[in-house]
Amino acid sequence: MGISFTKKQQEVIDARGCNLLVAAAAGSGKTAVLVERIVKMVSDGADPVDIDRLLVVTFTNAAAAEMRERISRALNDRLAADPENEHLQRQVTLLHNARITTIDSFCLFVLRNQFHTIGLDPGFRIAEEGEGKLMRQEALEAVADRAVSREIGARGLRAILEEVMNQIMYDIPSDPTIVKVIITESCVRDGAGPELVRDPERTQRPKLGKAAVQVEKSGPNGRYGHAG
User: Fold this and answer.
1) Is 121 exposed, middle or buried (0-12, 13-18, 19+ CB in 10 A)?
2) Going by CATH, does the domain composed of 7-117 fall within 3.40.50.300?
3) pTM score, two decimals?
4) Which of 156, 157, 207, 225 is most buried by a 10 A CB count?
């Protein structure tokens, strides 16, 4: 027995020739709608497309694998109902080459195939987690050293360090109680992580930006003084 879609879901499945943004809550059937839309695009109508001409991007490997499995099942069901359909036979074969993948995997695919257009060494590889942390730390130290050598003061140091705060944020757990991140002298000299100021009563994740970042100038106590 097939899935019964709502009117709005069917509109999404049938829409063609336009940009489309679908917003829905978790568990509302977004994946089922997307699978049905893809299957219809490659199997229905007067001018169906080949599955390997579509780019289907998700966030996790598990989600990509599930999406591929669902599309494969739907295509095979249609082929079972119409076994002589050469186009459906072709889609089942092409599914192995279809770009149903994660964002980072697709970006890697593009770089692997277009490295020559941007002058990238074809032998490049993805950095290990430890290498990435070391490179971020080295970048932070270089930026701080440059700021101090130019004598731009605490406000200038704050502006430069905020440029690399997005990288630092990757090492901070998604903790809704965090209300402030303080970059201290030990962050630069000793490789220590930033100090995290928490509010145990906060239940929603704060937006960490300029208001939440405190960078202080070096003082006698080994800590940066407030930059204002």
Assistant:
1) exposed
2) yes
3) 0.56
4) 157
